[in-house]
Design goal:
By secondary structure, the chain is an alpha/beta fold. It has six helices and eleven strands. Helix 2 packs across helix 5 and helix 3 crosses helix 4. Bound molecules: adenosine monophosphate. Adenosine monophosphate binds next to helix 1, strand 4, helix 3, strand 6 and helix 4.
Amino acid sequence: MKVLVAVKRVIDYNVRIRVKADQTGVETSNVKMSMNPFDEIAVEEALRLREKGIASEVVIVSIGGQNVQETIRSGLALGADRGIHCETGQEMQPLAIAKILKKIIEKENPNLVILGKQAIDDDSNQTAQMLAALTNWPQGTFASKVVIENNEAIVTREVDGGLETIALKLPAIISTDLRLNEPRYASLPNIMKAKKKEIEVIPVNSLGLDAAPRFTTLKVEEPAKRQSGVKVANISELVQKLVHEAKVI
Ligand code: AMP
């Protein structure tokens, strides 16, 4: 069984995001970039399936400029077998990403495709769902547990007020939620081994698809600054402030 994992290069989650002065987007130059955290969980899940003998190959795919190869390489250092870099200088919206991934699926014929539930930079939470629609494959989104048996993926999903368990006929699309697993760290020998692993480069404009954007970003703004707090001496002062100043009780 082959597992394809889609990984996005995003601003590292520890970095404080700065909005560009002209409000057209966020500052990405000289900023630490990493693999989208939900995609790390996707890679980990694929590796665990391989370690259990269920998957035979884990292939990582990323779409973007030359530097996404670094992100693919970090997935190879975690243990994935090989990478595919769909190269483009253009910023791609979720529909375009889903169309590109569909082309890679047609080429690679995976049994399972795992994506993150959302990229932490655009918070779209669209690509897995769009990919399932384009491929007409079943989807298990926000997975917190995945079991593969009898050519099915049994996916436990975190839904409002509890857990839902569904069965998907393979091939299928899964998107990962935070509690699916805890990703491993890359070991030094694996980082060395990853340098020799293959990354195939496919130019997006060779795929013959319409990747044009479907929306325009009008403006990006910083959230309103939080006002600093005050220290109160005791509970009665706190209650006074809540009643008379904040007027919340
Ligand atoms: P989004 O719909 O943008 O929130 O992204 C959801 C998931 O789609 C991510 O967690 C990735 O698994 C995948 N994805 C989004 N953008 C890319 C990209 N440029 N390259 C590879 N995978 C991507």
